[in-house]
Design goal:
Largest sheet of chain B: none
Shape of chain A: globular
Distance between the termini of chain A: 42 Å
Radius of gyration of chain B: 22 Å
Structural class of chain B: mainly alpha
Oligomer: heterodimer
Structural class of chain A: mainly alpha
Helix content of chain B: over 70%
Order of helices and strands of chain B: HHHHHHHHHHHH
Distance between the termini of chain B: 44 Å
Largest sheet of chain A: none
Number of helices of chain B: 12
């Protein structure tokens, strides 16, 4: 900031001569330009360490090695290997988000509306707060110790019932293994978000529906679900983005044997496995686009759902 | 209806408890035939564990201090003087949820490498600083929201004027009038930041720093029982952080009620 002069909307510099004292309760010396200096450190930080790095990647995705503009990198993403990586990622994210929403909704509804004792609610929410933050490497370890080759459930089923999970085609290093593991943070996140929404369903709506002769199913189909729908869909989008960006859990669980977008990008950053840095930028940009779309859906729908659920 | 509700709760809890049980059981099974704490002893006595854990704790502390110094004055100033800018600031603070961490760190590596204008990755110290900035970015959505919510509950305009009329400067206002009033919010943000930073893997691994997350991952690839012990420790830390958040929030309600 170089400006010492008052901004266009600054206070008048010439003092007006009047015979009666002008009431000026507080000195407001800061002109608008100077005020913005207060957020300068924040702006500087986010520009340098959030916006510029992202822009660098996104712009790089549209440039050649020589620096000319091109769509070639984006089009070059269309190889079987990269397409497959995105596709598996999307499948895992959709499945874990969908199951997370369903199971989380069932549990939240059981607590809020199902007539279970009230003391369950608070521990469940606390536990959800913990579990939704228990992700990454340790989460993968917990599932390897449980359904991995020597895990508690694997051995338990084998010894007690003679069931061999592997023979049934279950393997922790697979898309289903990944989905099963991701649910550990997806379900709690759903519970945390949807519980307040379920609390917002007013008892009067249910009573009004009943008085008008609606059955329970009709109430849900025609009143409650339409009101909850933006929340549900929005949370689904959030969970999708949450799973799509999860790198650590996937790497710790599968090493690098599973070809999904974040793992491919990780390998690309480490060692340029695609053999073209700009293809790496394009891969990263594709990830941003997908999570950005999902998050935009979430934010828009959350604003919509707040219309009813205040 | 009630039976259905119970089924949902019980099945759900089963899903959550079994992996925790599995990891606890596995972590105790290092010695053949009996339960023992051997895996924990092995992990805790590993100098590599001590070094990486210490590194990540230090990282978390620096991130928290930096985050508080960045977020509290900004959120305060925005609420006090620049309310029109708030939606924009809020939008920026949400961006780290939209842009995957792996993409942000990818940008760091390209933007701040040895041949750039700000060669942070050239020295270990510089890389540490860069990693800390990265963590502060990851924590930004949580920290900003916590502090901003805290500020909403107090009348910062009156507090500021009262402090000013007693002759306080901006530093005094921020650290002796505002900060104590949003301390609970700041602490909530701080504990959450701690939980995020302590086990973070992607950024630390790609910046090649000796942090706890990459250490856990390498141990997972090479050992059998120790990773489960690490998972138990990490779970305990997460639980402690969330417990502390609940505790400070409850303490505040208590003091407010009696005030």
């Amino acid at each position: 900031m170089t400006s010492g002069r008052p901004g266009p909307a600054g206070p008048p510099q010439s003092s007006v001569v009047t015979d009666r004292p002008v009431p000026s309760p507080r000195p407001r010396l800061l002109d608008p330009l100077l005020r913005t200096v207060g957020v300068l450190p924040f702006v500087l930080f986010t520009v340098l360490f959030l916006i510029l790095p992202t822009l660098y990647i996104v712009l790089g995705a549209f440039q050649t090695n020589e620096g000319t503009w091109t769509f070639g990198n984006i089009l070059a993403l269309n190889t079987p290997s990269i397409r497959n990586a995105y596709w598996v990622s999307i499948k895992v994210s959709v499945a874990s988000a969908l199951l997370g929403c369903l199971i989380g909704f069932a549990m939240a509804a059981a607590v809020v509306l199902g007539g279970t004792p009230r003391w369950i609610r608070s521990p469940l929410l606390t536990f959800s707060g913990v579990a939704s933050n228990f992700a990454g490497v340790p989460l993968a370890f917990a599932f390897i110790a449980t359904v991995g080759p020597a895990g508690l459930i694997t051995l338990g089923l084998r010894d007690a019932f003679g069931i061999n999970l592997r023979a049934y085609g279950f393997n922790i290093i697979s898309t289903w293994g990944l989905i099963l593991t991701y649910l550990f943070f997806q379900i709690p996140l759903m519970i945390l978000i949807i519980t307040p929404a379920l609390d917002g369903l007013k008892r009067e709506w249910r009573e009004a529906a009943t008085v008008l002769g609606a059955t329970g199913a009709q109430y849900w189909r025609m009143v409650a679900l339409p009101i909850l729908f933006p929340s549900l869909l929005g949370t689904f989008a959030l969970l999708f983005a949450n799973a799509f960006g999860a790198v650590a859990t996937a790497i710790a669980l599968t090493g690098s044997s599973l070809n999904i977008a974040p793992i491919l990008l990780f390998a690309q950053i480490r060692g340029d496995v695609l053999g073209n840095p700009h293809l790496g930028y394009a891969l990263a940009t594709g990830m941003i686009v997908i999570t950005a779309v999902a998050n935009t859906v979430y934010i828009v729908l959350r604003a919509r759902s707040e219309r009813w659920l205040k | 209806m009630k039976a259905l509700a119970w089924t949902a709760i019980v099945l759900g809890m089963l899903y959550f408890i079994l992996p925790l049980l599995g990891m606890a059981e596995f972590s105790l099974s290092m010695r053949r035939g009996v339960y023992s704490l051997d895996a924990y002893a092995s992990v805790l006595s590993d100098p590599q564990f001590q070094r990486t854990f210490g590194f990540s704790v230090a990282m978390a502390v620096f991130t928290i201090v930096f985050g508080v110094l960045l977020v509290v004055p900004t959120a305060y100033w925005v609420r006090l003087r620049l309310p029109w800018i708030r939606p924009y600031i809020e939008f920026i603070t949400l961006l780290p949820l939209v842009i995957p961490a792996i993409v942000i760190v990818f940008g760091y590596i390209r933007l701040y490498n040895t041949s750039s204008w700000l060669p942070l990755t050239g020295t270990p110290m510089g890389t540490n600083v860069l990693l800390m900035f990265g963590y502060a970015t990851l924590a930004l959505p949580y920290m900003y929201r916590a502090v901003d919510t805290g500020l909403r509950t107090i009348d910062i305009g009156t507090l500021t004027e009262a402090a000013q009329s007693l002759g306080a400067g901006w530093g005094t206002i921020l650290f002796r009038a505002i900060l104590p009033n949003v301390l609970v919010a700041v602490l909530s943000g701080a504990f959450l930041t701690f939980a995020i930073v302590i086990g973070e893997f992607t950024m630390a691994a790609l910046l090649d720093r000796p942090a706890f997350g990459p250490y856990m991952q390498s141990l997972g690839a090479n050992r059998a029982y120790e990773p489960a012990a690490l998972a138990v420790i990490a779970f305990a830390i997460t639980w402690a952080c969330m417990g502390l958040i609940q505790l400070v929030t409850r303490l505040q309600k208590h003091t407010r009620a009696h005030a």
